[in-house]
Amino acid sequence: IIRPGGWVFIEDTFLGRAEFAEPFNRYWTSNIGWPSEYDEVARRHGFAPVACVDVSAEAAGFWRLSVAYTERLLADDARDEERLRGSIDWQSGIAGAYLDGGMRNLLLSFQKPA
């Protein structure tokens, strides 16, 4: 239970364009949504949206590092080459989607009015 005046902070990946929903959901076995869905649920439960900070460019850097790490794993041991190459492709795609607006990494904050 969050008391009046309390806060909720969320970091998550959201859709920027609809064509990313199916591949994201298939890969992660999830159901990615839109930022507006979080806002709607928050308002329905008595929270007011306070801030939305887009950190997609910074998150893309994480995925580029993840690609480099996976490439290193592949160079050290190619026994799992097909899976690792698939991971590299996926990680590269996420980095690109964060940079071109296809997906967004957001920091959201909501407050329950006092």
Ordered list of secondary-structure elements with their pairings:
Layout (H helix, E strand, L loop, with lengths): L6 E9 L5 H8 L6 H10 L3 E7 L1 H21 L4 H20 L2 E9 L3
Antiparallel strand pairs: 1-3, 2-3
Q: Can you describe what's shown?
A:
The chain has 114 residues and is α+β, with helices and mostly antiparallel strands. The protein contains four helices and three strands; from the N terminus they run E-H-H-E-H-H-E. It has helices at 21-28, 35-44, 56-76, 81-100, and strands spanning 7-15, 48-54, 103-111. The chain has a three-stranded antiparallel sheet with strand order 1-3-2. Helix 3 (56-76) runs antiparallel to helix 4. The longest helix has 21 residues, at 56-76. It is elongated and about 55 Å long. The model has no long low-confidence stretch (mean pLDDT 95).
Short description:
It is built from 4 helices and 3 strands, in the order E-H-H-E-H-H-E. The protein has 114 residues and is of the alpha+beta class. The chain is elongated, with a radius of gyration of 17 Å.
Are there runs of 5+ residues with pLDDT below 50, and where?
none
DSSP summary, beta strand count: 3
What is the terminal-to-terminal distance? 14 Å
Average pLDDT over all residues = 95
Please give the largest β-sheet: 3 strands, antiparallel
| Largest sheet, spatial ordering of strands | 1-3-2
**What count of helical segments does DSSP give?**
4
Bulk shape: elongated
Oligomer designation: single chain
User: Helical content, roughly?
Assistant: 40-55%
Query: Which strand-content bin applies to the residues?
Result: 15-25%
Radius of gyration: 17 Å
Q: Helix- and strand-based class?
A: alpha+beta
**Topology pattern, helix = H, strand = E:** EHHEHHE
